[in-house]
């Protein structure tokens, strides 16, 4: 058992925010808290991370009682909705805190905390392989930023998915020549192919419609008891497996225009994952046929005139 919460109760004054909450999580398991604002989701996460102490109950991580252990002594990471991790600290101290906990050299910590933590500086330090844009700041991904991404990895994945066009972080027509065709790009808007050095670069549209219809369809066809993490992974793998980004000019994602065919592939993978996880209550002999039979086909009769 990786995580166990037993009889957790948290009160602020006379108000009980979390009441007699119990939870067990196995290592590698994916868990989501769902509930209305004020039901105690964030407070529970803060107690797990060590930023709040339960009024009652116990918290165990790897069978070790950490109920009253400080946050710095728990190997737990938490991302807050607020910009600063600790509101009582300056920006510089917040930047330095995690590096100190990770045992980074003093010189590296100073270089980070003394500098302006802008995007370009971060990319040069971290050397990420993927750059995801949801800022809605048009032009946020500049040529120096793309250059820095290419310096850190051979084929950087650039995802300027803000929309509409007036909000996109960078246009593929700029990113392709800036990266000399190395960047793998998907956007949040439909974009025409970008011609560069005799190759038409196909630009994928990062639309959640590529995954969710197939995930739902596979769940329905298999009559799964519930959706497992393996079913989610299978759906994502099925989307990614429909393209070969190693080919020159190939798209990072399958085209949205072929959504029905794409959803069939995703649904088949989800059905198989549900069977593998033993949550499927229906196991079709012909999975693809069962999926096609379950699909709604919009067929309209002749228009009636009055």
Order of helices and strands: EEHEEHHHEHEHEEEEHHHH
Question: In percent, how much strand structure appears in the residues?
Answer: 15-25%
Assign a percent range to the helix content. 25-40%
How large is the count of helical segments?
10
In whole angstroms, how far apart are the ends? 69 Å
- Tell me the number of structural domains: 4
What would the principal axes of the Cα set say about the shape?
A: globular
If strands are numbered along the chain, what order do they take across the biggest sheet? Answer: 2-1-3-4
**Uncertain runs with pLDDT below 50, 5 residues or more?**
none
Number of DSSP E strands: 10
Mean pLDDT metric = 90
Major sheet description: 4 strands, antiparallel
């Amino acid at each position: 058992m990786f995580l166990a919460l037993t009889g957790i109760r948290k009160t602020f004054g006379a108000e009980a925010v979390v009441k007699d909450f119990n939870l067990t999580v196995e290592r590698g398991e994916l868990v989501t808290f769902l509930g209305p604002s004020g039901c105690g989701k964030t407070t529970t996460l803060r107690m797990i991370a060590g930023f709040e102490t339960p009024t009652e109950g116990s918290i165990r991580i790897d069978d070790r009682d950490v109920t009253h252990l400080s946050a710095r002594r728990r190997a737990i990471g938490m991302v807050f909705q607020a910009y600063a991790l600790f509101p009582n600290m300056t920006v510089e101290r917040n930047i330095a805190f995690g590096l100190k906990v990770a045992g980074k050299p003093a010189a590296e910590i100073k270089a980070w905390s003394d500098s302006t933590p802008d995007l370009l500086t971060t990319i040069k330090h971290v050397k990420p392989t993927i750059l995801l844009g949801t800022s809605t700041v048009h032009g946020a991904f500049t040529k120096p930023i793309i250059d820095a991404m290419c310096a850190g990895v051979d084929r950087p994945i650039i995802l300027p998915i803000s929309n509409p066009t007036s909000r996109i972080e960078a246009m593929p027509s700029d990113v392709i020549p800036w990266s000399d065709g190395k960047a793998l790009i998907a956007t949040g808007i439909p974009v025409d192919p970008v011609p560069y050095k005799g190759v038409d670069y196909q630009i994928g549209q990062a639309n959640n419609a590529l995954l969710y219809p197939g995930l739902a369809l596979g769940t329905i066809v298999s009559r799964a008891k519930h959706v497992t993490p393996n079913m989610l992974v299978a759906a994502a793998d099925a989307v990614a497996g429909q393209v070969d980004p190693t080919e020159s000019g190939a798209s990072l994602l399958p085209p949205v225009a072929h959504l029905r065919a794409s959803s069939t592939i995703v649904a088949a993978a989800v059905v198989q994952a549900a069977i593998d996880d033993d949550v499927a209550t229906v196991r079709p002999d012909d999975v693809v046929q069962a999926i096609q039979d379950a699909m709604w086909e919009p067929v309209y009769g002749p228009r009636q005139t009055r």
